[in-house]
Amino acid sequence: MSETQFVDAAVRAARLAGAVLQEWADKFTVKHKSHAADLVTEADLAAQNVIYDALHGQFADHGFLGEEGLQHDGGASAYRWVIDPLDGTSNYVHGYPAYAVSIGLEHQDELIAGVIFDPNQDEMFTAAKGQGAALNGKPLQVSDTDQLSKSMLVASFPPGVQRDGPEIARFLNVLPQAQTIHRTGSAALNLAYIAAGRMEGYWSTSLKPWDMAAGVLIVREAGGQVTACNGQPWVLEDADLLVTNGTAIHAELIELLT
């Protein structure tokens, strides 16, 4: 099966999951805030289950790794789906419309297909290795901004970040040099937006494989650059990520972040 066919299967699964999330979102009212953790776990699991059912039904021999405890060994298969059914949990709970479904596919440890779906905006970001990236079927290209002073950046902090933590120090190093730095609460959308040319750079040292798998491929296929924050090669199983549009700002950010 071709990478494009894998993408098509992921798109269908992502839309199913998006519909589940939107259905569950109506249950997050003010009076239910005390039960938000339970509700979001149910929503997360329900979305992950529809993704797994849709993809496993087509690719029964593939491996699976998902945020909500999903780990299925594909046996002899060299394929593994890496799934985040709800990226942007805090946003979701608060009714802030910045969350997404993220589905990536590896073959022999190489990313070959990726889909990020924003059900609020009905935006489907897709990529197949060597075939470029797209948003709702239209080609994507990173921005050509090559100055930090003109760049919109985004950063992620880990839960429980402390005021004297290294994440804050890195943030303050970059802050005076950038036009602006955002914290959106969704790693998947951060990556999708860099691919779409809406932002120029993103870094984090607290991500999981399912936060990054689809988005990294989408950024690469849109012409962006992906490394660890110190400039070393990026590894899916490591939490360290620096993504930019691939211009001179990448080297500048490495210097500021290390």
UniProtKB/TrEMBL annotation:
Its cofactor is Mg(2+). It comes from Symmachiella dynata. The gene is suhB_2. PROSITE patterns: IMP_1, IMP_2. GO terms for molecular function: inositol monophosphate 1-phosphatase activity; metal ion binding. Its EC number is 3.1.3.25. It catalyses: a myo-inositol phosphate + H2O = myo-inositol + phosphate. Signal peptide: none annotated. Belongs to the inositol monophosphatase superfamily. This is Inositol-1-monophosphatase. PANTHER family: INOSITOL MONOPHOSPHATASE, INOSITOL-1-MONOPHOSPHATASE-RELATED. It holds the Pfam family Inositol_P. Keywords: Hydrolase, Magnesium, Metal-binding. One of its GO terms (biological process) is signal transduction. Mg(2+) binds at residues 67, 84, 86-87, 211.
